[in-house]
Amino acid sequence: MVTRDGRRRVTISDVASHAQVSTTAVSKVLRNAYGVSEAMRAKVQAAIDELGYRPHAAARAMRGRTFTIGVVLPHIRNPFFADILDGLNEQIAGAGYQAIIVQGGSMDPDSEGRAINALVDRQVDGILIVAPVLARSRLEEMARSTPTVVLGRHDRSAVYDSVLDDDEVGAELAVEHLISLGHRRIAHISQKDSGPARSVVWLHTIRARTYERVMAEHGLAEHIAVVATSYTEEGGYQAARELLAREPRPTAVFAGSDQAAFGALAAIHEAGLAVPGDVSVAGYDNARVTALAHISLTSVDQDGAIMGRTAGRLLLERISEGRTSAVRFSVTPTLVTRRSTAPPRG
Amino acid sequence: MVTRDGRRRVTISDVASHAQVSTTAVSKVLRNAYGVSEAMRAKVQAAIDELGYRPHAAARAMRGRTFTIGVVLPHIRNPFFADILDGLNEQIAGAGYQAIIVQGGSMDPDSEGRAINALVDRQVDGILIVAPVLARSRLEEMARSTPTVVLGRHDRSAVYDSVLDDDEVGAELAVEHLISLGHRRIAHISQKDSGPARSVVWLHTIRARTYERVMAEHGLAEHIAVVATSYTEEGGYQAARELLAREPRPTAVFAGSDQAAFGALAAIHEAGLAVPGDVSVAGYDNARVTALAHISLTSVDQDGAIMGRTAGRLLLERISEGRTSAVRFSVTPTLVTRRSTAPPRG
DNA sequence: TTAATGATGGGTATCGTTACCCATCGCGGT
DNA sequence: ACCGCGATGGGTAACGATACCCATCATTAA
Question: Between A283 and which of A202, A261, B239, B301 could a Cys-Cys bridge form, CB atoms 3.0 to 4.6 Å apart?
Fold first, then answer.
């Protein structure tokens, strides 16, 4: 291969001739394959270092592994995804794998499908897909050809692994907290469905249903108020404006995600109301920014780093150890109370 | 190629035999190459659609283009990068290109180098690298073999293109604004150097130097106070704590990035001080969250979407049109004043 | 009429690496 | 002395697509 500047890239043959061995031997050393003596390994490694050789991932993809994990994120704006990614990288870097990220375009199945195809076409060894909205059949089709972990989706599959937090416990914690503070008119901000309505495969549906269940269990069924927009700042803002216009207005808002909670805070502030004096707000994800003193948002913590690490481990198990049985891993969330929630006034 | 489930992937030969033409013809259609009749194009396209064929990017990489743009981000936590990415995607999607993102590990040249290598090994057609800390010689080495655009770095190169905002203008706007409000003790939060100290290739250095220059021009040289940590929430928090401990404490803080400004807001709030009553705060980037009512941060706006679009256009020019001369594109920032800045008390 | 030209389609070597298979060697057991 | 076996190293045909070159044919110019 000749690069634009006319210099040839160092290939496995260059290493082989420099070390005076066969390309096969070099390949075996590279892959830690069976049948290589210690002397051979040292000799080849020396040649590799001397020439600054790096395996050509694209060429590898033609026959073997690419040592690449593909990650599909709905969008990179959500800070919680950064935690997941850090956990994933930590886990796979040691095994010599590299993560590449593509944006899936949140809530749009077509765009998500294109993103997945892009990874499959690039022959990644494994795929982590976060909160997909694609039909399960399409996910399974992909999972049959490439090891796959799905994060944040409540369905069971025999072909891909699942990593999720227990959204029922998380939502319960948040709603119970608000109720125990004395709130009765508690509203919920959810996300619009982008597939079969109210299906429990989606985490936002679980959070919303749990909210309704807990409200009902405490005799607050008449106060149930859900506005479904999206788990974004804009979505939270719109939903909160709608809720604040109601009469009587809610004294507390449980937002399905921290981003939505930020938008809600903005709307509340804009309406001239105080948090938590007039309205308490709780979020979900415990993104790092929620801890900052001027925001100080009560939020449900799901450990993104552990979820990312686990996803990485599950993928490596499938890739290297050939596991084919499906696994489901669930973390239990906890509530972090901060200054955005307090007993209602009067 | 046989996938795990035993099904063969559809290849160009399958398409060729199905359409009863040569693989060469199919390849030409795929690449929009010269020498294809309209009838041929239609026939081949029909076969492609019928079989659901998708080109194998890894195989393409062996001889031709991968139709992939690699993006190196210091980390995905910074919301400003999301704007850049949206602009880039918008520009390259039409040309059939796909962006893949790798994390470079901010402020760590080694980790950044590994990220770049990962992209080069995967044979991407072009690379966009955001705010790199790597030595210029390494960047140029890479740029000689792969079309490269560097975003947010103030050096001139003959081999790669540069996209940046005019940080001198931006910093001037922010500092002049604070001075015109009547502030004199204005502090600045900057970023530690991760290479040659105080070199003007780094945008944080330009912002810091401009701050010093403008202060001096207004006879405020004695009030110059710079704390260099990092453009992150943690960095802004630490720096602000240090600044608030000084006697007398500053009445205004110009943070070099919005993220640092958020950290500063947290520290100020934690110290029991009010914004803008006790301390005014201005940031840089005008990330979307700064506009939210409960934050309402005065910030310097650089249009990330335009920068991303331009970077995409410049890369496509190099890839498709073979441009080799280096280009430099600079956007002029504007100031967006919000409620975090006001005249000093008393 | 012939030669030159342009448009179109196809044959084939090749990119860098690995999977598969085979050759060789040394050693222990019969 | 011979056989069998495990350990080691190498030869070679793929993987899927494209670049390069050539063959063919219709059209136009001389």
Answer: A261
Backbone angles phi, psi at A318, to 5 degrees: -70, -40
d(CA B180, CA A310): 53
Residue A12 pLDDT grade (very low, low, confident, very high; cuts 50, 70, 90): very high
Residue B128 CB neighbour total at 10 angstroms:
30
Residue (of B328, B330, B341) closest to B302 by Cα position: B330
Strand C nucleotides in reach of protein CB atoms, 7 A cut-off: 7-12, 14-20
Q: Which of A299, A213, A313 is nearest to A256 (CA)?
A: A299
- Residues belonging to chain B: 346
Which residue, among A27, A122, A127, has the nearest Cα to A73 in the 3D structure? A127
Any strand C atom closer than 7 Å to A117 CB: no
Could you report the per-residue pLDDT of A286-324, keeping only the tens digit for each? 988 899 888 899 999 999 999 999 999 999 999 988 888
- Cα A334 from Cα A137, distance rounded (Å): 33
* Contact in structure between B253 and B265 (CB atoms under 8 Å): no
pLDDT above 60 for B3: no
Q: Residue A194: pLDDT band by 50, 70, 90 thresholds?
A: confident
CA A124 to each of CA A61, A136, A302, B9, B317: distance values in angstroms, whole numbers, following the listed order: 8, 20, 28, 15, 28
Q: What is the pTM of this model?
A: 0.90
In angstroms, the Cα distances linking A92 to A67, A120, A131, A311, B98 are: 10, 19, 21, 10, 24
Task: Give the position of tokens 């450990």.
Answer: A303
pLDDT number for residue B6: 54
Protein CA at B23 to nucleotide C1' at C16, angstroms: 22
In what helix (H) or strand (E) does residue A110 lie, and over which residues does it extend? helix A109-121
What is the Cα–Cα distance from B229 to B212, expressed in whole angstroms? 17
**Contact assessment for residue A126 and residue A146, using Cβ atoms and an 8 Å cutoff:** yes
pLDDT of residue B5: 55
- pLDDT greater than 90 at residue A1: no
Q: Residues 40-79 of chain A: which lie with beta carbon within 7 Å of strand C?
A: 55-56, 59-60, 62-65
Helix residue spans in A184-337 (DSSP H): 203-217, 233-244, 258-270, 304-320
- Written as six digits, the tokens of B99 are 């962006």
